[in-house]
Structure formats: structure tokens, C-alpha cells
Amino acid sequence: MPATTTPQTPRPAEDARLDPAVAARLRRDDAGLVAAVVQQHDTREVLMVGWMDDEALHRTLTTGRVTFWSRSRQEYWRKGDTSGHAQYVKAVSLDCDGDALLVEVDQVGAACHTGTRTCFEAGGPLSVLVGSAPAGSADMPPATTPGTTPAIPATEGDR
Fold it and tell me: What pLDDT is attached to residue 65?
């Protein structure tokens, strides 16, 4: 019977402890990871997506540089250490469900390992049927207005 490889769950170093209040808000996948969407802070250009565990997030929040967990290499890596294409942290936000991070950066050089500015430029567009909002939908009250009921209530399936 061939040997199977089980992905290792990253282990935090003793000195790298994420604030327990932040850690409690995270909703990690089965490997202990959270998706991190990286965006250029001033242009809002989406650059790439990486993965973080508690230690990678701690390093990102406390060093000013973005650190990820590599699922393929099973190790931490700081963007730019070998390529020179570094990401300098400007802000980090957690989404409403706690399962994704938005990391706003000042990107130096290419964000993608292929040498392109963004990983989405390298991947390319897909064919899509373009949708349109119904007429008058721009005038609908926001779903988060205090004391009002949203016109179309969000459901768990809408997330």
C-alpha cells in the first residue's frame, strides 16, 4: 500500500502569539488557515490571495511585512525575501464571518511569482455573462441602516 502524505498543520512558534481577542474571531479551515486577499492600498487593485495561520497573521500585524503559510512547501514565507518584490502592510481587516482577511499593502514590484503585477493578470479573465442591477435598485435603503428592515433580507446562503 502506498504511503499517503497528510498535510501538516502549521505550528506557531513560542514567541509568536496572536492577540487572543483576534484569534477568537478567526474562523479557520480544517488546516488552521484563513484566506488573505492582498490589495494595493491606494489603487484598490487586487494583487493576490495567500493563506495565513495565527503565526503568519501575528507576523504580518507586528512586522510591517506580509507573511504567509505555504501550503505546498509547508513553511512560512515573507513576500519579497527572495524576489525583492515586497509587500509593506498599510492595514489589515477581518471580514464579517472571520474566514477571510483583507491585507492592504504597498506592493514593490510584481505580486505574482510569474512576474506579473497581479496573480489575476497572470491567470487571465474568464468568459462571463455580465449581470445588471434592476432599475431603481440604487435607491434602495442600505441593509445596515439602524432601525430599518432590509428590502431583501440576507440569508445564510447569500454569503
Answer: 97
